[in-house]
Amino acid sequence: MEQDQDWIANEKLRLINANLPMALSMSLAAACVQAALVSRSASTRGLALWLSFSAVIALLRYLHQRQFTARAPAASDTSAWRRTLDAGTALSGLCWGLGSALLYPPDLPHQVYVAFVMAGISAAAMTTYAAFRRTYFLFALPANLPLVISETLGGGSIHYSMAVLSLMFLAVVGRAAFALESMISHSLDLRAQNAELTKALHHEATHDPLVDLINYREFNQRLRAVAAAAAAQRQPYALIFIDLDFFKAVNDTGGHAAGDEILRGVAHALPTQLRSTDTAARVGGDEFVVMLPLCPAERAAQIAANILAAIQKLSLPWDGREFRVGASIGVAYTEAGEFDAATVLRAADAACYTAKKNGRNRVEVRDADPQLELSGRFAISEFSSRG
Q1: What is the pLDDT of residue 382?
Q2: Contact in structure between 64 and 3 (CB atoms under 8 Å)
Q3: For the segment 139-185, what is each residue's pLDDT rounded down to a tens digit?
Q4: Which one of 3, 28, 360, 376 is CB 3.0 to 4.6 Å from 245, fit for a cystine?
Q5: What amino acid positions are annotated as catalytic residues?
């Protein structure tokens, strides 16, 4: 749940930064228009300083936005980037507020126009920053309150009315900011839920429900991809077939629940002996297969030996008894990707059968051979044709 909230916050930050360049451009354009409007009544030096500060702030915020876009920060870094965004937004709002107060024109028509400009800036800021309402108010309050004070100090019913209208407009836009943030949050929350559901459904479709290794269909697809890449680049790969020994005795004596625990133990032990690029799958009742991309024969044989040792160490206390299993393991390899997936599968099947025939609880290694006959224990042809 916390990860979802981090993701939602990160998406909100991306949304704001995507809209920021246009908002900064429009803000600078509005500042120039307002400066031209009050140029006759305002100090030239003060006006120049205000425009300069506005331009510098806009430039720094734009550079920050470009940095954010280039780095595409992770959800865990959202808080730091948001603090910087809030600081820049508050500084921009303060610049607008001080400018409207210090450069407040003496004649009523121009005062009304300044109020109109500030209303437009506030409304535009709401559409830009409402994904985080706090960010919006960090702009809107310092941008508008100095103007409201200037209107109040102007005296007379017209100026009081302008101040009240400015506050009312700020309240209405602020309420809209709350509603818009809620709508954005709800939409992103639905996206997060859909993403989690899609991920869960994909996991369910591609993994064995008992041991949580990938299933035969997913393994077959990955194997085809590895075999194609090995053939194209003339690279080695290997397969390991694992058939548990004495597993039937566990099922017969301890029941299927005990057998399931043994299978889970094997599935847990397998990844501890593999490289990060290797893939393990359950392809039958007590049968597992491991795919080793970019793996020469010697390394594959060592990995298989490590797997056998890990399985031999497994022990299951159950109803006052202790169950153990072994494994007949067959390793097949192709040195330069010259054989297809079905051929290597047949070789691994044959090597596993040889290990079983020669006393079990051992590893047999052989190279792939297109002329190899199936042992009949594994439905390799059916397995390799499924998608």
Answers
A1: 45
A2: no
A3: 999 999 988 888 888 777 888 888 898 889 889 988 998 999 999 98
A4: 360
A5: 286
